[in-house]
Write a structure and sequence with these properties.
Largest sheet: 15 strands, antiparallel
Radius of gyration: 20 Å
Number of helices: 1
Number of domains: 1
Structural class: mainly beta
Number of strands: 17
Distance between the termini: 34 Å
Order of helices and strands: HEEEEEEEEEEEEEEEEE
Strand content: over 45%
Helix content: under 10%
Oligomer: single chain
CATH architecture: Beta Barrel
């Protein structure tokens, strides 16, 4: 497992070094403070991160790498979590108003904790996007096929899903997305996971978004799950090459369990 982690890091880091050598364009460094479950016991994670976002002709590349250090947790538990994401898009211009894009989203989570075994989650999601421009903005649709792998292996180690996204990007900074999720488990159990709504607005130096996750109640393995609604607001203020942001995840609204609130704040600088 440790060799696999080193291998992933060696593959990811050259992307950022390439950006730094190319006049630094597209490279962002930052740090985030995260307080998970503030309505329970206080905890604090410090997350330094690197982000790369640029284009080479018809190829768009986005990548993110961060390490979360649990500096305030249970007395004997200070977890470390490596996170990496990437999303390249290759854009095919079909006409002056329409574009077909092919991409693949990847997400890696590797957790090291003194109190439990190391855990690995990896997801790979091929995507196809079609965008059509109009006078009132862009309408687009995305189809994604996420494949997830969890380690250590158990009965639910591999999953396959499908996502359908419909979106509208206005000409005045407003963007809307609606995404239903479906999941197919290896034991033959198929389920509708839920739907996600994204509302974002950008004007000058201000950016804000609200993600509303409405998961589906489900009965599985003799248990009933009612996760409730999740609200995730995010506000960002940009000045010069810097930005500060605040965000939250409000989890379990309307469920039979207690509501959990996670807070985060961050600072980043773009070269």
């Amino acid at each position: 497992m440790k060799r696999f982690l080193v291998f992933v890091v060696m593959l990811t880091l050259p992307v950022f070094f390439t950006a730094a050598q190319d006049d630094g364009l597209g490279l962002t460094v930052g740090v985030e403070l995260e307080c998970p479950g503030i309505n329970d016991e206080f905890a604090l994670n410090v997350i330094p991160f690197l982000e790369y976002d640029t284009s080479f002709g018809d190829l768009d590349i986005w990548a993110w790498l961060g390490v979360s250090f649990g500096v305030v947790h249970d007395e004997d538990d200070f977890p470390v979590n490596l996170s990496a994401e990437f999303l390249p898009w290759y854009n095919l211009r079909l006409s002056s108003d329409s574009t077909l894009s092919i991409g693949v989203y990847g997400n890696l989570e590797y957790q090291i904790s003194p109190s439990v075994d190391d855990a690995l989650f990896f997801e790979l999601e091929p995507r196809v996007k079609y965008n059509q421009s109009f006078d009132f903005g862009d309408l687009y649709g995305i189809i994604g096929l996420p494949v997830g792998l969890v380690y250590p292996y158990d009965d639910y180690d591999v999953s396959l899903g499908v996502k359908f996204t419909l979106g509208w990007a206005s000409t005045f900074g407003l963007e809307l997305e609606l995404t239903p999720h479906f999941m197919f488990m290896p034991d033959g159990v198929d389920m509708y996971e839920g739907i996600e709504l994204l509302i974002s607005y950008e004007a000058d130096s201000i950016y804000g978004e609200l993600v509303v996750g409405i998961p589906n109640d489900m009965d599985y393995g003799g248990y009933h799950f009612d996760p409730g609604v999740t609200l995730s607001p995010h506000v960002e203020y940009r000045f010069a090459r810097m930005a500060v942001y605040l965000g939250a995840d409000i989890i379990g609204i309307g469920s039979s369990s207690d509501i959990e609130v996670d807070l985060k704040a961050g600072f980043k600088y773009s070269f």
